[in-house]
Amino acid sequence: MSGYRYPTDDVRFCLEHIAGIHRLTEHFPNYDSELLDPILSEAAKFSEQLVAPSNRAGDINWPTISDKAVTETPEFKAVYEAMCDGAWTTLSAPEEYGGQALPRALEVAVNEGIQSANLAFSLCPLLTQGAIDAIETHANADLKATYLPNMISGRWTGTMNLTEPSAGSDLSAIKTKAIPDGDGYRIFGQKIFITWGDHQMSDNIIHLVLARLPDAPEGVRGISLFLVPKFLLDESGEPGVRNDAYAISLEHKLGIHGSPTCVMQFGDGDGAIGYLVGEENKGLMAMFTMMNNARQSVGLQGLAVAERAYQMALDYAFDRTQGVVKGSPEKVVIAKHGDVSRMLWQMASSLSAMRALMYVASVESDLKGVDAKHQKRTDLYTPIVKGWMTELSQEIVSTAVQVHGGMGFIEETGVAQLLRDARILPIYEGTNGIQALDLVGRKLAADKGEGLKALIYEMSQDAESFVGHKDLFLAHLDQLEVAAKAILNGESVANTAAYDFMMMAGYVVGAWLMLKGCQSSEVKQDWQTKTEFYVNHLLPRANTHFAGVKSFNVEDQYNAELLL
Amino acid sequence: MSGYRYPTDDVRFCLEHIAGIHRLTEHFPNYDSELLDPILSEAAKFSEQLVAPSNRAGDINWPTISDKAVTETPEFKAVYEAMCDGAWTTLSAPEEYGGQALPRALEVAVNEGIQSANLAFSLCPLLTQGAIDAIETHANADLKATYLPNMISGRWTGTMNLTEPSAGSDLSAIKTKAIPDGDGYRIFGQKIFITWGDHQMSDNIIHLVLARLPDAPEGVRGISLFLVPKFLLDESGEPGVRNDAYAISLEHKLGIHGSPTCVMQFGDGDGAIGYLVGEENKGLMAMFTMMNNARQSVGLQGLAVAERAYQMALDYAFDRTQGVVKGSPEKVVIAKHGDVSRMLWQMASSLSAMRALMYVASVESDLKGVDAKHQKRTDLYTPIVKGWMTELSQEIVSTAVQVHGGMGFIEETGVAQLLRDARILPIYEGTNGIQALDLVGRKLAADKGEGLKALIYEMSQDAESFVGHKDLFLAHLDQLEVAAKAILNGESVANTAAYDFMMMAGYVVGAWLMLKGCQSSEVKQDWQTKTEFYVNHLLPRANTHFAGVKSFNVEDQYNAELLL
Predict the structure, then answer these.
(1) Long-range contacts of range A146-153, CB-CB < 8 Å, 24 or more positions apart?
(2) Residue ranges covered by each domain of chain A
(3) Predicted ipTM?
(4) Residues of B in contact with A540 (CB under 8 A)
(5) Any idea where the Acyl-CoA dehydrogenase/oxidase N-terminal domain is (chains A, B) (predicted)?
(6) What is the pLDDT of residues A409-432, one digit of tens each?
């Protein structure tokens, strides 16, 4: 596998010239623009030199479980220690608990590198980040002071325990129980698909667990959130007695082999001791407030894995000699063949549009506390970042395999691993079908389309100064508005048309940001050519999805029972 | 993994009411229409009951190599014996050598079942079939009489040895040597990616090997084809002395684990003894004459694997209960959710269009000896069958994983295997980029578009009697003609636009056949609904590819060096 190269120029261009990261300086006292270059440069070194070499090991040397204890891929512990030593886990965390209080957008830039370098590994600090967010936002001061500093430093990691065998997309079906006991609760139940549910890289693991109190209302309004440490803390605040919370088996998965996916048993004996986070029966809302970040992170994973696959394909295409082209008697590298160059540009154009959206959404998310406008925009972007980007990532990793020809199918080449790893992305953290429903239901319908209208207005204003493709872009913008209206007024059936609407929105927003990038005085030739390619080859897909939205216009018009 | 169900009704409908298999009775004396039902019914039993249960074993119990001998997945030998005992290997072979001289279209129908049931296994008899074709068409009478009967009965299997490390898509770079020696030749060289290159299921293995004679012209005009048996025959025609042709290693692949992919060494010692097939230096042409069948077979594999994945998704969607829908307080199976039903119909519609094309192309291929028109049509269909169908198969297997949610990512569920297996299909037997070049180069340009014009004319005539979607279909037909002209007259750059043209042609031809099916008095409701879905959701993609063809209008407009 060729070496990973952090795409510093592209990341900086997106942050500075499309997302306008300078707007964050006034809201983040610790951040000034001088910091961007050194952080990107250190992130590049860390991900390229320390993280990337462990990627293949994770694919081959799977985590093992023995006596209810999981041992991770041997090569990972040193990487994790380097991550903590470099304080990479502390970037966006509050200073009060040892964090650097920097914008999340910077953390996203750092995470892009780590996720490209080793997706399976990256999930451990990422899930910890999610747990930190939930605790910080919802837990009481005591829990925060007790748990956050060690989680932020990376000494302890965190997990999110939502799914049960009968409660996946539908969390209302959660059965895990929480019985009040003294100051705390005893948790009983089984959770599945728990990422990094157990391992030996950290001194403690802080599980956040959704469970039901006795007599809680049925459905999602009866779910509470609990903090359940692997080791209960002793009087000095250090890990002491083992809690009754164990990984009991590991899943055998298509990809991300290095990430232990655990079945977790809480309360096989006296019950796992847990502490309430936030209010009783408000657990799902606590989860939702942190879901924007988690979902955007999965979109980022799509970008990151696809970027790595693209780089491998690019390297291979300039290394592999095969065939001749018109006007050259010598055999050429395959990158010179029309169809291979088509595939390379297809990947590169998609990636730049995805990256632009990723950093625009992350800066927006950093501003969401400033006013409702930024919050709304973040709400709107999140399902598109997660859904559209992880869909595109599937195409990119598959195309990267294709560029390799027969070698792409050989595991040692390494690109097949990325295809396997990437396949989880449209599924976890809410399937893309759920993202689409979130977009048309919660995000579009909740404010009767006002948020989208504001976005469309902003895009149309920007389009006024586009040098090329202005009319084409505006026509697509009109279609997006028509599609949104059709869904809002019920002409299109929201539940069925949701996916097409999400994809359409993604392609249009991607075009906006590519064209916007072309307006920058710093734009380079490759961005302009990628934009040309995008407008001619990716944007037209929005038409297909528009046709889809329009034609889903009768309730139950496609009854699956007819297929039986 | 739920049980595989051979899609008897769909296969019969495509063969009888779209492909018009009755036209074959006058050209195949052994075939009459009464045979269709019993053959499909027996094929269903064989694939469902005898082949399908071995599929997962092949994924887990990989072939092994020891002392230059490959041992296949243990469960496979009994399946292979059942296949020979059932005479499934003899269907289309000439009677003279023990075959049944039935139409190839019937064999395709049988193979669909076997490939759905176990793709990795199916490649062994399939490659044998390819070798039989090459020998039958090009070898002298003596070779035919000596080798064909045992290959047709299945006692001996066959392989195709084309690829070398530096000669993949570009066979002109082949280096393997053939030195004349008495009546035969001594072969020296290494071949890679040799499917079922060695195993213990048959008494002998007949390798067909591309190699160069001394002083052969450079390039593809200096390649000859040789028959190289694993065991040389003794005087009674039985396998005797071991030939100097050995598998020396096995590839570790993403999928089709049960199919041993060998590195073959010919002539590590005194040279592997081989016999010339056809004329000297005409080896590549010998390969090409059988490539139509082999390439159509890979298209069939796309259909077959995708069908299996779709069935698993359908079963899961009607088994898994999750969430509620409007108007029902009870939790429902996920097939009732709009987005899941969208995915199921997307798969089902694509599959029916693919199946229609598959059987139309195979009946056409059976008629290609009758007149030049059928030969031309077969030439045109072949790259579309291979390219378009294997591209669609990727989307279908991935969608089938998606329907399974988190369970789709767990290997034990079984659908992930199909995603891994399917990924080879756009690559082998000529990558889809090569198929596209074949379509616009050899097939379109060779007769200045006459063959395509005839097909477009036939489609437009059929469209006259379409009840719905006539105008929409005709508009797409016009676009296809415009795109073909643009490529032929150089307005679009053929090499770069080829892929988009191939995909566009696939979607339009698929629409034609779906709509044609709707004209049949035997059409059922599900076919009609699938056609509606296809026209509204799949056909619009042709517009995107049309935009692609048009916009690739400048030579070298996307230079990949800009991406470095």
Answers:
(1) A146/A233, A146/A237, A147/A206, A147/A227, A147/A229, A148/A93, A148/A94, A148/A97, A148/A98, A149/A97, A149/A98, A150/A203, A150/A204, A151/A206, A152/A89, A152/A90, A152/A93, A152/A97, A152/A98, A152/A99, A153/A84, A153/A89, A153/A90, A153/A98
(2) 432-556
(3) 0.98
(4) 543-544, 547-548
(5) 74-154
(6) 999 999 999 999 999 999 999 999
